[in-house]
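Hi Y.,

Following your request, here is the sequence exactly as I used it, all 162 residues.
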Amino acid sequence: MNNAIKYKKINYLLWLFLLLFNFSFSFSVFSQITSIEWLSLKYDKTYLRSGPSKQNKVLWTYKKKGLPIKVIRKKGDWYEVEMPERITGWISSTQISFKRRVLVISDELIDIRRKEQKTSKVIAKVGKNVVGELIGCQKTICKIDYYKIEGFVEKEFLWGVD
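Below is the corresponding structure, written out as tokens. Let me know if you'd prefer a different format.
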């Protein structure tokens, strides 16, 4: 009888720990995005096709590893995607990475700030078509890693986030 009570207490404490652990991560300001709506290109050469097979016409050849893509739907081993230029087509799943990336779409240099406030110190500037690793986002700003420079960029200048 004593062992049964100990087992129930341990089980109760384990569930309490898991609940608190999960609760603490759900309130992270810059939580990791887990949606598969946004993916990226795995290689420096990727074909965007008119349909979901290698027999379909190549519409574009992309030569930018890490370029973010928006998933429209999946059919077998193929993804129908939207590219930054708003072009749609199909890419084989073997050519796609699940790493979250963003692309600068502003024609002018944009500021990378040390903190999320607009008054925060500018630590670098970044130009159009530069790809960065997405760390997380708030309503209007995202934390990005641009080649080992981590900082905050306004969402409106990025492709690869909602």
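The radius of gyration is 21 Å.

Thanks again,
Q.
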